[in-house]
Amino acid sequence: MISVLEAQEFVLKNAEKLPVITLKLEDSLGYYLATDCVSPLSLPSFRQSAMDGYAFTHTNETRLKVTGQIQAGDLSTPHLKPGEAVRIFTGAPVPDTADTVVIQEHTTREGDTLIIEKLPLPKANVRPIGEQLTAGTQVLDRGHQINEASIGFMAGLGLTEVKVYAKPKVCIITTGNELQERGTPLKPNHIYESNGIMLQNALKRLGILNIQLLNAEDTLDATSKAVHEALENSDVLIVSGGISVGDFDFVQQAFQDNGIEEHFYKVNQKPGKPLWFGIKDDKSVFGLPGNPASSLTCFYAYVLPHLRSRMGSINPLLNKRSAILSETITNIHGKTLFLKAGVNGNTITPFTGQASSMLNTYALSNALLLIPEDTEQLNAGDAVTYLDLNS
Amino acid sequence: MISVLEAQEFVLKNAEKLPVITLKLEDSLGYYLATDCVSPLSLPSFRQSAMDGYAFTHTNETRLKVTGQIQAGDLSTPHLKPGEAVRIFTGAPVPDTADTVVIQEHTTREGDTLIIEKLPLPKANVRPIGEQLTAGTQVLDRGHQINEASIGFMAGLGLTEVKVYAKPKVCIITTGNELQERGTPLKPNHIYESNGIMLQNALKRLGILNIQLLNAEDTLDATSKAVHEALENSDVLIVSGGISVGDFDFVQQAFQDNGIEEHFYKVNQKPGKPLWFGIKDDKSVFGLPGNPASSLTCFYAYVLPHLRSRMGSINPLLNKRSAILSETITNIHGKTLFLKAGVNGNTITPFTGQASSMLNTYALSNALLLIPEDTEQLNAGDAVTYLDLNS
Prior knowledge:
Chain A has four domains: 4-19 and 167-310, Molybdenum Cofactor Biosythetic Enzyme, Chain A (3-Layer(aba) Sandwich), CATH 3.40.980; 21-43 and 134-165, Molybdopterin biosynthesis moea protein, domain 2 (Alpha-Beta Complex), CATH 3.90.105; 48-127, Molybdopterin biosynthesis moea protein, domain 3 (Molybdopterin biosynthesis moeA protein, domain 3, Beta Complex); 320-388, Beta-clip (Beta Barrel), CATH 2.40.340.10. Helix content of chain A is 19%, strand content 31%. Chain A has helices at residues 4-13, 148-156, 195-205, 220-233, 251-257, 292-310, 360-364; strands at residues 20-24, 37-38, 48-49, 53-56, 63-70, 84-88, 100-103, 107-110, 113-116, 126-127, 138-140, 161-165, 170-175, 179-180, 191-192, 211-216, 236-240, 261-265, 269-270, 276-280, 283-288, 320-325, 329-330, 336-344, 347-350, 367-371, 377-378, 383-388. Chains A and B meet through helix 2, strand 15, helix 3 and helix 7 of A and helix 2, strand 15, helix 3 and helix 7 of B.
């Protein structure tokens, strides 16, 4: 049995990057850059007024003659002589013959005469060419996750396309004869299937939309066939349930029969001990425990970072943060514990109801409190580490 | 001029909830519940084995006769007599005539005889009916934002639909004659339009996809017409640029001409002072400054919480968190400052390049450092407050 850290190392080391694709900038939100981004422009690309006011060549003369105006977007600018000023607006080009803009609130007008009441410093309110950046500068690194600000930024550089890593096609196979589809009254001794739709939506939150959902009967033949079909059609396969060693758990055998190489089985953690991970060519395969909360914890700790890494992230794990524990926790298991918890301000409170079958508390959690395997007790008031579920 | 807190109060007080709609559970990720969710079921709904092993009635007898097996999903269970046990698997129904499950690792078999090597406590490894929750319990509150865990949880309750608040239709109008579409070489004194696509993607990240993008020429007539069209077709109107008092800023006049009631204009903040907010009937209208970084800061501080509130969130503001400042910051403005910053571990570092025209640093920011208007200096090592841009 390997440790949580070892298992995370395995899934990150075996995360081959997906192919590089070219997307329109407007469709690239959430993707990771596959190349460094170099600016084709200087910003600003012309000398620009930062305010509404008057452009002039700096002088101690406080009465100037207004000879015209320049609006943002004007293609040319007037030539100013000494003693002249020109009305100018934010974003408009500053004439070569001016070096300073006085803001309108610091002036008055008498007809064509401008009276400067508060003289600005030379060069005030003029944005020089390249103030923000010069052409040829590397502005974003490979691995940057594209957000609304970087989209706006790249748009301002005139970029229309970006090279990013593709997102994976994922197949989810649910197993278990006790599972029933929603929409009909629950049969005796059955439960409504929930892991498929849960994992599908966890993927959706990562921007992964190409998802196939299969259900396999609890027979070796059905399980093997489903695994075979999934390997044909997807980059990543997630099987939920059937991974322990009960007589009716056919998943491991089905993995073997399909030629998937086991990288590890079982992690020293609670919940989610019977986690399986393997590789076949460029396909990655996860066998998750069937209990919903175990399944989701394994998703956050292993599947999510693996997927992000394949999508090009250089920082794929959920963020570790620190908070103050509200109550005493013991760890009698010698395992790493992941406890569903709520962080409020600087305080973290683990929920009552940690059993691996219980999703009600997960629905309310924004954190997983992390108790290391060699920590037997944490006390109220201790600074503890948690995984930020929104990171 | 009002304060940041007053402005936030205004936009949250004037955030009428959008209509309640019914969605399929699988399409509800990210929406906010419009009703409390009450469980129609007890979970588990039958006595369930938590492990693979053997079910029996607790006894000190360590040799029992195995009379059959129960698999998860079996519709009926055998009747056990004293001295008998039955093979059972995780999730399978425990017979009424048994009260305990011994895990298989604590047993050996000799033909039909089970030898219990480590006797569990009575009732061990049996999940009683209603252990997680009983039918009729309120399990999720109105205002809960639906995540993958709550989708899985509600699926497990057999729910097929949820009542949520609709998401708004939003129209973005960009203004400014200096703006040029991407795809052609930059004309003199022009800049590539970036605010429209930036705000569109900021909305996308909130799950708002019904977005109309308009560009208005810098004339009162064109601006008024665009505002009119936007009010016809959207719940929320965002105008970017043209909101200061320069001669070519027609947006305020266009708002007035379209009968939009001004709630406030100008906030004591940097960047983003000339922020405008108004209401017409059930439509909300924001006039954002045209500088890209100002525009995005106003989006995060006001537009985003307003939208979340209209979508039903009870906690709509970006999370405030605490970190240690890496360098000394002065605030000579008497205004609230929002500084683009990077949080790494417990340390926050404001970026060089805070000018309101600069998006390059925003692309790298995961936080906005908040400096209150009455704070003149913060020192390296101080605990400071920031807005988490991923919250």
